[in-house]
Amino acid sequence: MTALDIRQKAWSAVLIVLFFVAWELFCLMTGMSDLVLPRPSQVFVTLFERFPVLWPHIIQTLATTMLGFVLGVALGVVLGAFIGVSKTAYDTAYPLLIGFSSIPKVAVVPIFVLWFGSGTVPAVLTALSICFFPIVVNIATGLATTEPELEDVLKALGASKFDILWNVGLPRTMPFFFASLKVAISYAFVGAVLSETVASNRGIGNVMMTASSNFNVPLVFAGLFVLAGLGVALYVVFSLIEGQVTGWATRKNDVIAT
Amino acid sequence: MRMQANSEFSGEPVPSGNAPIAIELSDASVTFGRGDRAVPALSKTTLHVSEGEFVALVGPSGCGKSTILRLVSGLVQPTTGVVIVGGREVAARAMRVGMAFQNPTMLPWMTIERNIMLPLKIVEPFRSQFRKLRKTEFRDKANALLEQVGLKGFGGRFPWQLSGGMLQRANLCRALIHEPRLLLLDEPFGALDQFTREELWSILQGLWMTHKPTVLLVTHDLREAGFLASRICVMSARPGRILDDSHVGFARPRTVAMTFEPDFVALNQKLRAMIVDARSAVQEGAA
Q1: Is the pLDDT of residue A77 over 70?
Q2: What would the pLDDT profile of B121-148 be if each residue is shown by its tens digit?
Q3: CB–CB of B97/B88 below 8 Å?
Q4: Do B103 and A147 touch (CB under 8 A)?
Q5: Residues 6 or more apart from B53 whose CB is under 8 A from it?
Q6: ipTM of predicted complex
Q7: Residues in chain A closer than 8 A to B97 (CB atoms)
Q8: What three-state secondary structure class fits B118?
Q9: What secondary structure does DSSP assign to B68-85, as a single string?
Q10: β-strands B21-32, B98-101 pairing
Q11: Is A83 in contact with A89 (CB distance < 8 Å)?
Q12: Contact B96 A255 (CB under 8 A)
């Protein structure tokens, strides 16, 4: 890590601290009621005190998110590979995909509830349906941009479509794939919480819903903080994996920089 | 060095002697599309290439030179006529020909060594041994080729660490690693500067003289054709056909200095005149 990177990270940390300090001061100076906007210090205290109660809900939300994410990625990779290998399939399927992706996912939750009842299943399905789209697009685009000359070289060697996909197409999509994983995990998280908020009796989304109807506003905000923390953590995990697996796509910049 | 000019270069088609036929195009034509939008790319063409020959295809741009390569490699099926490669009709496409294009298309996530070994992952009998031998025999094979093209010690580098000329040498290695009997080159040196290009001519000549594959080379560069080829076919403008088929008998190994001697220059000018004619014929036709 260079000195520049460290300074950059230090400034990010300073900005986060400043944000909370400004929030705290704003509430103190305006005498804001904690029914409207609790101070961050109150929220952290609530978070700490209620943590044993929140914990199972955190696990629930994480589990539904991950399950929806894994299923969404699997579906996205298969679908993306399928439409990415053929230009015709790509052009044909694209309008339908755009149609699906434009549906606000909050609108499909009632349908999932109708089919499967409230609880974990609709949350997983919502997470799945919201996160598979960026995967499909990125895999398909990565595959569609394989150099035609290289494809000719391999076909002339008698390579099958699968050989080309396995040795060239899929490795080439890896940077696209991992970039889309970062987006997809955040989406899956949003989907799971969304569904929990509407139709579940477990999970952080449900906790926040219940707390707000009891006017326990600090607990609502504590839920928000948990969500933000989890979202950042998941993003970081997938960024690290991305860096490990697809270093070749960014290594060029390192060489120029050093 | 004294050049041994061969009287045959002056135009007569040369019978292919006793060597077995490697490539046989009989009245093969190619038309892309159908009906009103049909574009003829290659008129009925007959071409016989003997095993171990180095044939250059030259001609105005868009004349179907690359189409012939695609026909021979089995990437395109002839609309009419027959294409026989290595005694088999190409429809089977189990030819395992080595190919190289102007764009070296090395995969950026693999070292040069592993890039060169890519065909071994696809072509039998290497394919089934790949896991076992990739760290030993196959790797040595790749490095032996790299040494031959002057890239000794570069096997562990990544493609972005190499210059354009070096990548093109690696590209030749990749085309040859599986010991193909047939090497198809589509303007492999088109994007290189003059000096690098001349250097690579000698390297390619060396590779050809050691491995002796049959080579079909598509090029715009008449000096390149004269330097490398044992036979040059001149093609007409689109839809292409072969206008002239001449033997090039200069002694090997040829040197860049030879390309400035009178016999070589005469051959060059003759070829150039034919291509200029072919181009102007089209322009008159269009007018």
Answers
A1: yes
A2: 888 778 788 887 777 788 888 888 888 8
A3: no
A4: yes
A5: B16, B19, B22, B214, B215, B230, B231
A6: 0.77
A7: 156-157
A8: helix
A9: HHHHHHTSS--SEEEEEE
A10: unpaired
A11: yes
A12: no
